[in-house]
Amino acid sequence: RLHDELGLPILGVPKTIDNDLGATDLTFGFDTAVHVATEAIDRLHTTAESHNRILVCEVMGRHAGWIALHSGLAGGADAILVPERPFDVEEVCRLIRRRHERGRYFSIIVVAEGAVPLEGTMETLSAEEDEFGHARLGGIGQRLGPEIERRTGFETRVTVLGHVQRGGTPTAFDRVLATRLGVAAIDAAHTGNWGCMPALKGNRVQLVPLREAVAELRRVPDEEFAVAEVFFG
Question: Would residue 130 show up in a list of annotated catalytic residues for this protein?
Answer without folding.
Answer: no
